[in-house]
Amino acid sequence: MSRTIIDLHILQTVPPSNLNRDDTGTPKTAIYGGVRRARVSSQAWKRATRMAFNSLLPPEDLGVRTKRVAELLAERIRRLDNSIEEKEAWTLAAETIQAATGSKIEVPKRKAAAAKKSEDNPAPESSYLMFLSTRQLDGLAGLAVEGRADIKAFLKDKDTKKRAKEIADTRHSVDIALFGRMVADGADINVDAAAQVAHAISVHAVENESDYYTAVDDRNPDDETGAGMIGTVEFNSATLYRYAALDVDLLRKNLGEGLREDESVTEPLRRAVEAFVRGFVESLPTGKVNTFGNHTLPDAVIVKVRTSRPVSFASAFEEPVTVTEDSGHLRQASERLAAYIPDIERAYGVEDDTDTWVLRVGQSTEKLSGLGTEVALPDLVTAVGAAVAQRAADQ
Amino acid sequence: MSVLALLLAGPLQAWGASARFARRTTEHAPTKSGVLGLLAAAQGRERTDDLSDLAALRFGVRIDQRGTRIRDYQTAKHLDTGRSMPVSERFYLADAVFVAAVEGDDTLVNDLHRAVRNPVYLPYLGRRSCPPARPLDLGIHDGRTLEQVLKEEKWHAAGWYQRRLRDQPEVTLGLLIDAFPGDPGADSLRDLPLSFDPLHRRYALRGVRSDTVSVPNPCARRTTPPDHDPISALGGE
């Protein structure tokens, strides 16, 4: 079977910023090539990408991650049948989710105790964050309404139980298919993430800096001098190398499982790939973004469609890039990549079968222009989506 | 018997042997369970599939570049309620390079080699956010033992690291190899995977023997000092 893997490589410069900080407020770092580098964790960038999906994809393609699945499902149940009271809907929802996922749905003990004292009626919750797609919720709501008369007996039936499980395990939302789902006690409906995102690291050595600030009290009486408040904010500036690999075959499996016979997975697959490429390229973790206003876009993006295994180019930057009189970090990083990519692909014999697109900005990235087809972002997104859909259709 | 050697290098790696809950630690070298997991994933085995053939492979690892342990502080928030989840700590090995090897039956080792070059599930160095930064495959070595391969493989530390030790024509690297039964000097680690089933992960104890090996440093300075005899300039006998 022919294999499809996409890898994305991005150079992005961020001015003074603190995109992703540790418990002391310091920007995260790593050691690479023997020197300290700026680092933005993979989790931070995955979250930023997932948030970007909200504006890239229709809601029915997305999922919700919550402990309050019962409330969420109950709302849907009542939309299907408005004769159902809220409390009954909660019970129907809890029973259905329990049957579908194997996870306990109950009123948290603390809330139950508090409710005894007051008149409140707390809703049952799952003990873990559950990640369900809109389509799955719709399916489960339908099932709950169907078994409304005696929900427990209805779900005890082997075939119904199987249906419930199938609904929870099929038609995964795009974000679940890409980034996975873990339900701690319903591991049979776990989804392995199709996307692999690396921690972004700077291509050069970085020292964190500290900004000492004072704030003036506007209504300070004359006889009292000095600042109303003082503090420090830590930051650094960096040219980051960002890398992600997307296992298109796994994504296709995640999206396609449970589709009806007459439904083709090609279209959902294309949509998901396009959303991932655009979302990963354009998104930015929001850490301290209002303090530093570091809204930048990537200076260079290289996308490759591969047929055997993904290749990260992080090694190109193992020796840190340095600034010279006539060349900054970005120019040198581009030169490194331009030399490294053909070199490693030749050495491992993977260059012949690789479609490559390059998006680049400005003179500093000139050296990258020979590596592939030069495109702007909308065309890049469409081209990668089309290539993936074509390969999927050929199979 | 054949040996498959792998190069494990990347900005970050994480090899947990006993990490649970919110504190995810890493050992200072790749674990057998981690590397077997990588191989099993490359073959496309599911988490619930049988692992006994892989667990029976002899495993060893050489520490080519030690790396630095770094701590990552991670927070998570409910996307719909905005509430914070428990903070977790993840530890990584930054800037490390290892050579790992497995020894076993020819057919299985050859199959693993093919899988590493065309992996079904994408490889990572102990944690999904740690992709390898250099190709993993160091090839199959027929008719050699695990120890021989780990001793003869060239030094894979980064250029800057080799240059830093240029005063040493030979460098000494640590080895951690599966102990033979009854080996008195062995440490034990709960690191032999019996099942990766997420509902019921199981590991058995594994004996680990430490050793060292010397390999040549390609960046070493010439060892013979240059010919230097200032007295000869003064003439004489």
What does the model show?
Chain B: This is Type I-E CRISPR-associated protein Cas5/CasD. Chain B: InterPro entries: CRISPR-assoc_prot_Cas5, CRISPR-assoc_prot_Cas5_N, CRISPR-assoc_prot_CasD. Chain B: GO terms for molecular function: RNA binding. The complex is a heterodimer of chains A (395) and B (237). Chain A folds into two domains: 259 residues, no CATH class; 109 residues. Helix content of chain A is 39%, strand content 21%. Chain A is of the alpha+beta class and 395 residues long. Chain A contains 13 helices and 14 strands. With 237 residues, chain B is an alpha+beta fold. Helix content of chain B is 17%, strand content 36%. Chain B is built from five helices and nine strands, in the order E-E-H-H-E-E-E-H-E-H-H-E-E-E. In chain B, strands 1, 2, 3, 4, 5, 6, 7, 8 and 9 form a nine-stranded mixed β-sheet that branches. In chain B, strand 8 and strand 9 form a beta hairpin. Chain B is globular, with a radius of gyration of 22 Å. Chain B starts with a strand and ends in a 21-residue tail after the last strand. Chains A and B meet through strand 2, strand 4 and strand 11 of A and strand 1, strand 4, strand 5 and helix 5 of B.
Keywords:
heterodimer; A: 395 residues; alpha+beta; ten-stranded mixed sheet; two-stranded antiparallel sheet; 13 helices; 14 strands; B: 237 residues; nine-stranded mixed sheet; 9 strands; globular
Count the helices of chain A. How many?
13
How much helical structure, as a percent, in the residues of chain B? 10-25%
Task: Give the oligomer, counting copies of the same chain as homo and different chains as hetero.
Answer: heterodimer
User: What is the H/E order of chain A?
Assistant: EEEHEHHEHEEHHHHEEEEHHHEHEEH
Point out poorly predicted stretches of chain B. Answer: none
Distance between the termini of chain B: 66 Å
Helicity level of chain A, as a percent range?
A: 25-40%
What value does the Rg of chain A take, in angstroms? Answer: 25 Å
Bulk shape of chain B = globular
Query: CA-to-CA gap between the ends of chain A?
Result: 8 Å
Number of strands of chain B: 9
| Residue-averaged pLDDT of chain A | 87
What is the count of structural domains of chain A?
Answer: 2
Q: What is the H/E string of chain B?
A: EEHHEEEHEHHEEE
Strand proportion of chain B, as a percent range, falls in: 35-45%
InterPro entries (chain B): CRISPR-assoc_prot_Cas5, CRISPR-assoc_prot_Cas5_N, CRISPR-assoc_prot_CasD
GO biological process, one term (chain B): defense response to virus
Organism (chain B): Thermobifida halotolerans
GO molecular function (chain B): RNA binding
